[in-house]
Amino acid sequence: MKKFVKNYIGKGKKVDGLDIIKLNLKITDLLKFAHKYNDEDYISLEVAKLQTPDNFGHDYTVYVNRLEEEQVSEPAPAPKKQTKKSKTAKQETSEVPF
Predict the structure, then answer these.
(1) Residue numbers of the domain that contains 67
(2) Closest to 31 (Cα-Cα) out of 47, 59, 9
(3) What are phi and psi of 54, to 5 degrees?
(4) Do the Cβ atoms of 61 and 41 come closer than 8 Å?
(5) Phi/psi of residue 62, nearest 5 degrees
(6) pLDDT for 25-38, tens place per residue?
(7) 66 is a domain residue
(8) Rounded distance between C-alpha atoms, residue 70 and residue 32, angstroms
(9) What is the pLDDT of residues 12-22, one digit of tens each?
(10) Domain tally, the chain
């Protein structure tokens, strides 16, 4: 089954006094998501406002939203239930003759 996966590639801040958002992106990350359309190279980005700024004051996040095949994993086995031992069983095992 395919689903959209967000690949986060950078952050951004609003420029004081202007309606501009300055983004910081690594070129190597951008190139991973390049695609061709009409024999031209493109990168489609999405910018979203964060609910709260991060520790560096970034107000925005940048990501590439791609349709990818979802890997189906087998369900993990249920954990085994531990049985409680009686006090007498613990006492018998704790006494080791020398």
Answers:
(1) 2-71
(2) 9
(3) -80, -175
(4) no
(5) -120, 135
(6) 989 988 888 889 99
(7) yes
(8) 19
(9) 999 999 999 99
(10) 1
